[in-house]
Each structure stands twice: as C-alpha cells, then as structure tokens.
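Holo prediction. Input below; ligand is PRP.
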Amino acid sequence: MTELHPDIDRILITEEEIQNRVAEIAAEIDRDYRNSGQIVLIGILKGAFIFTADLSRKLTVPHSVDFMSISSYGDSAISTGAVRLILDLRKPIVNQHVIVVEDIVDSGNTMSYLYQTLMGRKPASLRTCTLFKKKRNSLDVPLDYIGFELPDVWVVGYGLDYADTHRTLPYIAALKKEVYS
Ligand code: PRP
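Structure of the complex:
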C-alpha cells in the first residue's frame, strides 16, 4: 500500500467509492433532466473544480459548464457567515435550468448565498448538488443531490484543501488533528 502523507490520519472515502457515487449522481441528473434541453452546471471554485469535471464527463444530458468563485471573509476556520463574490458567470442564466455544483456544504453559508443570488437572476429552475455534506442538524437551503455525509473533522482531497494543499488526492482523507488545531 502507498504511504500516506504525514499530515493524513486516515482515508475516509476511497477513490473507487467517490467515482461510483459521482456516476450515480450523474445518472440521477440524467433521469431528472432528460426532457429539459440544455442545462447549465455551475461549478464553485476552487473546491468543486474536480467534482464538476468528473460529473460533467459522466452526464449524457446536453449541458454547458460555467464557474463562480466565492470566498469567506477572513481566514479563520470559524465562519462569520459573510461571503463575497470573486468571479461571476460568463453568461446570464435567465430561463435556463441550472444546477449549482459544490464540493462540500459545511455551515451552508456559501450555498445559501449562491441560492439567493442565482434565484435573483430568474433561472427556469435551480437545483443544488454537493458531493460532501457535514453532519449538521439544520441548513436553510435545499440540497437536491448529495454524495456523502462526513464527520466533523478536517477533510482533504478530491478538491478539498488544507491551506491550498492536498486538493489533488483522489480520495477523501481526515487530517491529523495536530495539523489544524
Ligand atoms: C469551501 C467549499 C465551499 C464552502 C463550504 O470553500 O468549497 O464553497 O467552503 O463552507 P460553508 O458551507 O461553511 O459555507 P473555501 O472557502 O474553503 O474555498 P475553496 O473552495 O476555494 O477552497
């Protein structure tokens, strides 16, 4: 077995499990949108760039891909709830069927901001998709497609980072507590 990076405690979700789940989500979206014409996937940078690419390549419904970038205010691990738009879409989404694609929903602040902002642009429909979701009781935004629930530890890989490292690991791993605390 390949040696794990010294920052990593253990693998939580393997590459095969991720790829199988992405294929299942793509099949679900294919079924839901088979009569909808062209749809738009909006990947949220940076974290969702890998999931968006894999999901897009597994979809058979016609679709275009666009990106937005959102940042939380401040660098603290404790979210204040305030987010700002760093990069906007290339094209309007009015009257389009739109799916927002996130890597992870944690507090839900980012998805909530995206949902309000994109609904204001009058799409024909808006759904949300996230590969990972932290186990929390309440979120004020609907999540239509969810890949996996994760425990409340710092996870990296498949787009998720710690200080911009470990994003390209093909699996999801828990960091050692001493690395981030
Ligand atoms: C991460 C992730 C989501 C957001 C989720 O982005 O990609 O966009 O946090 O957290 P929330 O549900 O508490 O709002 P991050 O700000 O780390 O930026 P990055 O994707 O560029 O790494």
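The mean pLDDT is 93. That is the main takeaway for now.
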